[in-house]
Amino acid sequence: MTILHPFSFTLHPFDFRSGQAFFFDTIPVMSAPQPAFTVQNMDFYYSPVKKTLAGINLEIQPQKVTALIGPSGCGKSTFLRCLNRMNDTIPGTKVEGKILLNGEDIYSPNMDVANLRQRVGMVFQKPNPFPQSIFDNVAFGPRVMGMDVNLNEVVEKSLRAAALWDEVKDDLKSDALGLSLGQQQRLCIARVIAIQPEVILMDESTSALDPIATLRVEELIADLKQNYTIVIVTHNMQQAARVSDFTGFFWMGELVEFAPTNELFTAPKQEMTEAYITGRMG
Length: 282
Fold this sequence. Notes:
Elements: E1 2-11, E2 24-30, E3 37-47, E4 50-60, E5 65-69, H1 76-82, E6 94-101, E7 104-105, H2 113-119, E8 120-123, H3 134-144, H4 151-161, H5 165-168, H6 181-193, E9 199-203, H7 211-224, E10 229-233, H8 237-243, E11 246-251, E12 254-260, H9 261-266, H10 271-277
Parallel strand pairs: 5-10, 5-11, 8-9, 9-10
Antiparallel strand pairs: 1-2, 3-4, 3-6, 6-7, 11-12
Helix pairs in contact: 3-4, 3-6, 4-6, 6-7
């Protein structure tokens, strides 16, 4: 969006010889896009005495891929699940600070959590298709949510977006569990796309896949970011470097460094980050 900044102009002085008054030339200024997520001083507790995340601050940009890296148990998956309040299902958990989705506090008492999870979909570590047909898997979300849509169109569009349509279009009534693991994971991505989210979260979504299937999902991520904000958790630093625009490094429940991916991997500002990505720590 182009706006006219109130102080962006060129001043032309009065020309006494011609008698013409000065005038202003407005100069368009490009406004920065609003972050998809803004996280402010966020702490997370699994119990009143077990703080798992401390002082997290970052902005997740729209239609970009953000990767979260760090060793097992560092809090990156816990943080990911805070973004759509999946941790709410665990008794005793608590979040302090703020997480804003397009400026809206997702932990506000007025937040509709079901609506939030429609806006922020999630793909899990292991493919988890329902024991139903391929068609019914993709149509499940729109049916449950009572979305006023043409299911045939939604299923086809979602499978196309997940790069799976050409492989299954003649077998939509077949059992989804009969697909390969890579196809199952892309089906799960299609299932998320079908509910028309703004953000897609992926928690180690390729860790159970072979290299060829992993490459297909990575290519899919590159295509999907044209329309969706994507946040991935990965142990694979090469994958983070390949697919992401921004990377956050977590260590012991803290966000040590967050930067554009190229900067973080080539010129990290924190010694701990450099030690981790070079294999000297972790």
